[in-house]
C-alpha cells in the first residue's frame, strides 16, 4: 500500500511538472503593427502573405483611428510599425522623435457617402447631407476621415449636423449598416468592403480631400528586421496588388 502511494505521488509530481512546462512554452515572435482602421481588410490579407514568407513569425495588429494611434505612440505604447491614414498623424509621431527614418507613402484614399441599401432617403450629393431630418454620422475632426470631411464641408459651405462623430471610420460605417444612421461619410475602401450592406454615393468634391497613407518603422522597434520586411511587403508589388483590389489608389 505504501508503494502504491509513493508511486501515485511520483506520478502526480511528474504530471504537475509537465503542466508547468507546457504553460511556460515561449510565445512565437511577432511584430506589432499600429494601423488605421480603414486598412484592416487589406493589412490582414498582407499579413497572411508575410507569415507565409516568415514562418514562425506572427503579426499583432492594433487597428484604430490614426489620431488615437498617434496619441498612444507618443504616450509610450510599444510598436514596430505605424501606418497612418494621413500625413498629419504620422508627422506628430515623427516630431516626437519616434520614427526610425522617414515614412513611406504607400496608398491614397478618397471619401464617399454610404447609405442604407436602396438609398431610401434619396441622398445624391454632399450637399444633401445638410438636409434637415437626415441622420448623418461622420468621423471626429482629428481623425483623418473627419479632417477630410471637414475640408469638403468648408469648401462647399455645407453645414453638417451629425448624429455623432466617431473615433474611426469603421464605426461610421457600422452606424449606417446597422440602421442607426441614414448616411455616413467613409472611405471608398470601406464602402467596397461593405458590399451590398450599403449603397455608395460618390461626389466630385472628394477629389479636394484625398488622403495619403504613410508607413514607417518605429524607433527602437523590438523586431526591427521583420518589421522592415513587413513594410517592404506593403510598399512592394505584392502589397500593391492587395491594396489595388481593396480600392486604394497609388500615392
TrEMBL record:
PROSITE patterns membership: PROKAR_LIPOPROTEIN
Keywords: Metal-binding, Signal
Residues in the signal sequence: 1-25
InterPro entries, alphabetized: ModA, ModA/WtpA
CDD domains: PBP2_ModA_like_1
Domain of life: Bacteria
Keyword Disulfide bond: no
Keyword Amino-acid biosynthesis: no
Coiled coil: none
Family under the similarity heading: Belongs to the bacterial solute-binding protein ModA family.
PANTHER family: MOLYBDATE-BINDING PERIPLASMIC PROTEIN, SULFATE-BINDING PROTEIN
Name of the protein this chain belongs to: Molybdate ABC transporter substrate-binding protein
Organism from which the protein derives: [Mycobacterium] nativiensis
Name of the gene encoding the protein in the UniProt record: modA
